[in-house]
Amino acid sequence: KLLKTKEKKKVIRHEIINVSGLDLIRILDVATKINQAASSEGSKIIHVDPRVGDVRHSIGSMDKARSVLGFTPEMPFETGLEHTISWYRSHMQ
Question: Taking the domains of the chain in order of start, what are their residue ranges?
Answer without folding.
Answer: 2-42+57-91
